[in-house]
């Protein structure tokens, strides 16, 4: 007997991604902030302690939960090699052309023997607005009489209200990270979709998401 195959979307609690905001099937919203890393080993002992204490203080001031996600992927070096090959073709100086060729071979052999990894740090910020549901007959008949345009307008206004609350939380996170010396930026729609594409396609190499 054949089993009923279910689409991946049925197991993912995401309804849509709108204006960089993840809308869950239960009505909750999520924003994703990309953050850079800080190399503590390059800092003095006092600087390390100060950075850790500042980050601890930042976490203690939050009155909402966050999730920190780290993605580690193999870096795709092929575009860089193609760029070097293009430059080698237009190089008129024989010595520079030879050096570029040797450098390309060195990079290619090195990356074949050693996996160069890249890490991305994400902060997931939630917002859930609890709405009390009522099954009373009067309210039910009232809302069912609303036309489609009115219902869509109400949904849009509800989304904008919740997004405003979510953006305030995003601002709190970005300011807190900044005080710790960490640069951060909220991802847009395309970047959010790319993040989830990589989550469900772990075999893919590192893509284009970068923190400027």
Count of beta strands:
6
Outline the low-pLDDT stretches. 207-212
| Basic shape | extended
The CA-CA distance between the termini, in Å, is: 53 Å
The overall number of domains is 2
Count of helical segments? 6
Helix content: 40-55%
Biggest pleated sheet: 6 strands, antiparallel
Give the helices and strands as they follow along the chain. Answer: EEEHEHHEHHEH
- Please report which band the strand proportion falls in: under 5%, 5-15%, 15-25%, 25-35%, 35-45% or over 45%: 15-25%
Radius of gyration: 24 Å
How would you classify the helix and strand content by structural class? alpha+beta
Mean pLDDT: 81
Topology readout:
Elements: E1 14-18, E2 21-24, E3 29-35, H1 45-61, E4 67-74, H2 78-90, H3 94-113, E5 117-127, H4 137-144, H5 148-179, E6 184-186, H6 189-200
Antiparallel strand pairs: 1-2, 2-3, 3-5, 3-6, 4-5
Structural write-up:
This protein is of the alpha+beta class. It folds into 2 domains: 8-73 and 119-200, no CATH class; 76-115. 48% of the residues lie in helices and 18% in strands. The protein is built from 6 helices and 6 strands, in the order βββαβααβααβα. The protein has helices at residues 45-61, 78-90, 94-113, 137-144, 148-179, 189-200, and strands at 14-18, 21-24, 29-35, 67-74, 117-127, 184-186. Strands 1, 2, 3, 4, 5 and 6 form a 6-stranded antiparallel sheet that branches. α2 runs antiparallel to α3 (94-113). The longest helix is centred in the C-terminal third of the chain and has 32 residues, at 148-179.
């Amino acid at each position: 007997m054949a089993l009923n195959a279910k689409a991946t979307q049925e197991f993912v609690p995401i309804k849509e991604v709108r204006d960089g905001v993840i809308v869950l099937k239960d009505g909750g919203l999520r924003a994703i902030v990309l953050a850079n890393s800080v190399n503590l080993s390059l800092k003095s002992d006092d600087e390390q302690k100060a950075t850790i204490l500042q980050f601890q203080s930042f976490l203690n001031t939050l009155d909402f939960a966050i999730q920190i996600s780290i993605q580690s992927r193999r870096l795709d070096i092929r575009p860089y090699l193609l760029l070097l090959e293009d430059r080698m073709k237009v190089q008129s100086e024989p010595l520079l052309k030879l050096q570029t060729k040797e450098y390309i071979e060195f990079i290619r052999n090195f990356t074949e023997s050693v996996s160069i990894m890249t890490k991305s740090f994400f902060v997931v910020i939630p917002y859930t607005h609890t709405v009390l549901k009522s099954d009373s007959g009067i309210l039910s008949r009232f809302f069912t009489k609303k036309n489609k345009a009115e219902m869509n307008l109400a949904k849009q206004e509800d989304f904008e209200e919740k997004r405003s609350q979510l953006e305030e939380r995003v601002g709190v996170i970005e300011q807190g990270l900044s005080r710790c010396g960490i640069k951060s930026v909220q991802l847009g729609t395309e970047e959010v979709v790319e993040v989830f594409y990589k989550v469900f396609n772990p075999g893919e190499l590192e893509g284009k998401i970068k923190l400027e």
